[in-house]
Amino acid sequence: MSAVTVMSAGAPHRRPARPARALARAVLRPHQSALWFWGLLVALIGGGLLWAAGPGFDAAWDAYLKSGCRETDYCAMGPAYQRYDMVVTLGPAVLTVAPALIGAWAGASLIGRELESGTAKLAWTQSVAPARWLAAKLAVPAALIVSGTVLLTLLNRLVWWREEPLRDAVSTRDWFAVTVFTGNGTLATAYALLALAVGVVAGLLLRRSLPALAAGFAGTAALMGVLQGNRDHLWPVAETRAAASEPQWTGMLVDRGVITASGDRISNSLCEEFDCGRSDVVGYWAQSHPSSHFWPLQLVETGIVVAVTTLLVLASFHLLRRRTGGAA
């Protein structure tokens, strides 16, 4: 038996490193500060929402009962309610603002900086195909982002369910408010993934960190603004009519106006006076989205966001293929 054979027989058996796990570590290693920031943010907001769903609500409800406030009153309920209100307002606000920050980070740090510094090309020469590199750049952050946003959304839903009697008593936090609507359904997670895709496309197009940061932030904010501005058109409205006075509606008001003797419908937004200064008004109408429209509106908008995200992901692979000369 030769010495080579003896050394081979005596050498310990080493399991080859799992490529997927090694690639995931390679993605996370340069972004540890962002990972720590995201984890700390989720922990702080999540802990605050857990407190709000338990002792925070109990203290706020007790303060309301002791204050003698009524639904039509505007009165102070003390520091206990103020602390509770700050926490439950901050939770949905963070979920609404986070996508724009995710888009900026994805454009500047996740993609733009690596293309600008040449780190990406180095990775492509280390037996990592460009398409696999991009897939890891999308999949690993997406898993972390989804886990955090889903957790915070569930905690927001817990607080929303728990505070129903207090919310009805003091008439606060309408379900259709921008932050409340985003933070209490599937939209927070969908917008976060959209921001990731926007940032990646911005980084691949601009290949520089600072311009990609600005483009990722602005692109995400613009898409969110367009969708949120047209939210009331995503589902058929409920209409109410009245003959003598303006009809009562519930939920999110979309439009209202008057009906003339000739059957014309005139929106109040087109005139300054309540009856539009007309003497032939025979009725009034109002269009709104009641609370039962929350999930239809939520799911339709989520579907649109997911579709746009999918298109952006496909576009990112196409851009990478063009950049690498079809070697992706």
From TrEMBL:
Domain of life from the UniProt record: Bacteria
UniProt keyword terms in alphabetical order: Membrane, Transmembrane, Transmembrane helix
Transmembrane segments: 35-54, 93-112, 133-155, 175-198, 210-227, 299-320
Name listed for the protein in its UniProt record: ABC transporter permease
Record lineage: Bacteria, Bacillati, Actinomycetota, Actinomycetes, Kitasatosporales
